[in-house]
Design a protein that fits this description.
By secondary structure, this protein is of the alpha+beta class. It has one domain: Nuclear Transport Factor 2, Chain: A (Roll), CATH 3.10.450.50. Helix content is 32%, strand content 29%. It has a four-stranded antiparallel beta sheet. This is 3-hydroxyacyl-CoA dehydrogenase.
Length: 135
């Protein structure tokens, strides 16, 4: 078999034959990062604008409102946002329900623990949080 024939036998995969990116493949890392970022926003060490692309409009507005409330509370008690943040993600759970993913994460700091629950829905090729609750 000549070199020209060998080249014809070996077919290289094209971009179109590659599997499409599945945003549901493993949402665990996204849930972990998003939960950590939400707690950082509420503690005042991260800007809420950094999460705007990951939240839908009503969810972002709700987070912004809660952030402003927490900021007013810190000002009234003359507390400052922490300079050193020691956040630990203890547990992340998620389950697929129809086209959406519902997830929870337990985040702890040296002072307290928080539970973050969210619903992620596909928008284009990525997931966005359409519901977010922090306890």
């Amino acid at each position: 078999m000549g070199a020209a024939q060998r080249k014809a036998v070996v077919a290289r995969p094209t971009r179109s034959s590659a599997p499409a990116h599945d945003p549901f493949a493993d949402p665990g890392p996204l849930v972990e990062r998003l939960s950590r970022c939400v707690v950082e926003v509420l503690l005042g060490v991260r800007s809420p604008e950094q999460l705007a692309r990951w939240l839908d409009e009503p969810t972002y507005a709700s987070l912004l409102s809660r952030t402003m409330s927490a900021q007013r509370m810190r000002q009234a008690t003359k507390r400052r946002p922490p300079t050193r943040l020691d956040l630990h993600v203890q547990r992340v759970r998620h389950s697929r329900i129809g086209d959406a993913i519902e997830a929870t994460a337990i985040i702890t700091t040296s002072a307290r623990g928080r539970a973050v629950a969210m619903r992620l829905e596909p928008v284009g090729t990525r997931l966005r949080a359409t519901s977010l609750v922090v306890l």
